[in-house]
């Protein structure tokens, strides 16, 4: 399928088959593109992993070939189960397909769609082209059906339309129509030229012959309909209907949600009805001999058409929570199964297709109802798919997954491993459930999210069934392929080892959903994991030390949408967020780990949603809300290019992804389109569509042959790139490899000469420190650019090697303190004015709290926490003074025992404007020094009854201990604090994640400084 071709400079005018003018890009400085043939733009949809069928109206079978058709967003998949091959029909209107029906001869297929002014379309199956387009509904089409003679096509609209239309689809005219007062769920044509609709308290027979007897001169005549005689069953909701075939062509069978199977005769009279003895029934399918009823809990009951005698049940599918890689298809007592929601019968092969609520498909051989066998099956995601990752490939076959594998995560609380290759793997043999699915990781034991609950019946007890914070939001595979990091919508971070698929670490990392995870590249020399969240914090974890917390960054003021590591030999971190800011940071080695220092800050005028770094680590591409892709230099932070990332005029860019060679980038827009763009020139190569919801993730495969996209419609699309695109990528990789080999060939010549110099430099530094112990450590410390981190050469040595890109890199790692600018800041001594900002650059980019260094990441019991707080508080009352971090900027030392008696005060605005002259600072420091001495001489015991009462009431909340809490009960059991306790309460959030601890510690440190300054009238009066 050629997908929305876009003009390219190398095309001639006769090669353009679709409109669109690409944005003119800048001069291309990439490797020259190959001479491309006319099919350069061909991007094929190779396979779809997913299904969006909700009822039997969106599942149909060709009675002649046995092919199954079902919707996957805006694409109709035509499946050949025997060959396991797919063909695809694209809805050119880009609207979700809601209903399907094969023609009796199997040559055509009719579709209905959702959205504004939906159309009923007829497609040629072989040519995959549109034959007819019929407009007669306003909101959506619920079901469509061909008449037995293929002359007419019937469509029923959504409840807001309240209309049923009969079309002459070959002429494109509406011949009959009528209003419907009830919600219609299904439709079925009989062999005697009438059709039946069922719905909410609705069973109605419509007659085409009688409608023709009305005024023939009118273009559209009223459609004649008569209600079925329901008797005492008139209050039921009928969800599906099927007219009899052969000898039973005069009978009509329908099924209700309550589990009643009803049979009507030719006179519309209810002859028989039986109770299926199930909690819920959804669908029905009829052949000449059997009636199949799809019910809850995976049940499909089989009855005889002549007398409604019960015969047997179909085998149940897999149970919810199945291990597809390790379990056989056996029934487990007490297991939960997914509901059956759609059925379609193949009369040629006697196969029954069943679609279940967890978005799985089974095709059963029902030729002998006593020995039913499975013909084909597949399991898909049942909810929003958030992310996709391609598993890295290794030459020595040390990977945990077969080559060509990829992973997806979803709101159904699963991480699924896929592989489309035909080869086998020692640890992952082809299972009996799916030819494409290797493994499923269930992040929670709760199975309620494994079923699609978007189309629940009108039952009150299910109104609030779903948890809005469920699902795996993002994931990342470690570069060595051994670990899988995943973050969920509740802020939890999990680490799975992929050899045995076990969860080894679970941490409450954030207070909100995790939006991005990123492992550092091996070239940086460090194994780090960055976790960014909607709570605007970034946590940096050390992988080599069992994911120990290294640092928490709080530069952003809004949700962080993307974070990336960059650099070859040097570690850089780049992040962007909804605050329209991009932060560039460089890593410095400190005594207890790694510290990231901010080097550049870019403020844009548009929201930034995603970014990716090219293979050379020199450029970062950012997807922006204004539909532009902005490319920045990772070393200098300066913008290099800016071009359109979408050919449309609506929406925003949501995702951007570079291919493994850095030649092309793929973008996804909120208008549900996908574009492939030349990275250096900005020329659009191809534009695709097919998803019915926004595309949430994209990845190029390492073989440069496929692009994998995932979306909120629960579907995974595998796009096959044209050979020309693949050739360009591979050629670029070969050129880069040659450049890298030439660079390595020069390294031994200089390396043997420079490494001894570096060793002499370190020896000189140590000897100088021994000879001058009286000098401050700051004067003895070398410049950060010269620190030999991870075996790197100093910057002066890199200049000799030619490895430093430009002068910006030298300044990139320099640590510059804040200094006021302008005439008002000038003094005779040319010294900067002392401010709170001058004390330490960590004020902007805090290092991890020392109290968190050895603490456990997992929360503990509240009772244990409070007991520890009491012990710590008593110990502090008897010990010496404790220096506060926030007050150390002013040289202040306080004693915790004295702080316990000070009431909680809100932050004051004059705290930020204090110390506005050098003399004031000197005087304040003198006063604080005097106060320190007074504090040290003061007893830690309460001196007044008021202090003793305050200590008794606020003893636990004022303890200087790190709060850790885990609620084992329900949140409803928590009691609101009293008014007198609410002001001094330290537990601001019942969920004590890493983010909560970090924010609590920052709030507490600023609180102690505010409290002390409040009790210093001389300072307060002079600073106001």
From TrEMBL:
GO terms for cellular component: centriole; cytoplasm; nucleus; spindle. Gene3D superfamilies: YVTN repeat-like/Quinoprotein amine dehydrogenase (2.130.10.10). It comes from the Eukaryota. WD repeats lie at residues 134-177, 406-428, 688-722. Residues 385-721 form the MABP1/WDR62 second WD40 domain. Pfam families: WD40_MABP1-WDR62_1st, WD40_MABP1-WDR62_2nd. One of its GO terms (biological process) is negative regulation of canonical NF-kappaB signal transduction. InterPro entries: MABP1 (IPR055292), Quinoprotein_ADH-like_sf (IPR011047), WD40/YVTN_repeat-like_dom_sf (IPR015943), WD40_MABP1-WDR62_1st (IPR056161), WD40_MABP1-WDR62_2nd (IPR056162), WD40_rpt (IPR001680). SUPFAM superfamilies: Nucleoporin domain, Quinoprotein alcohol dehydrogenase-like. Signal peptide: none annotated. Keywords: Acetylation, Cytoplasm, Cytoskeleton, Nucleus, Phosphoprotein, Repeat, WD repeat. The keyword Transcription regulation does not apply. Residues 57-379 form the MABP1/WDR62 first WD40 domain. It is found in: Cytoplasm, Cytoskeleton, Microtubule organizing center, Centrosome, Centriole; Cytoplasm, Cytoskeleton, Spindle; Nucleus. PANTHER family: MITOGEN-ACTIVATED PROTEIN KINASE-BINDING PROTEIN 1 (PTHR44813). Can form homodimers (via C-terminus). Interacts (via C-terminus) with MAPKBP1 (via C-terminus). Interacts with CDK5RAP2, CEP152, CEP63 and KIAA0753. CEP63, CDK5RAP2, CEP152, WDR62 are proposed to form a stepwise assembled complex at the centrosome forming a ring near parental centrioles. This is WD repeat-containing protein 62. The gene is WDR62.
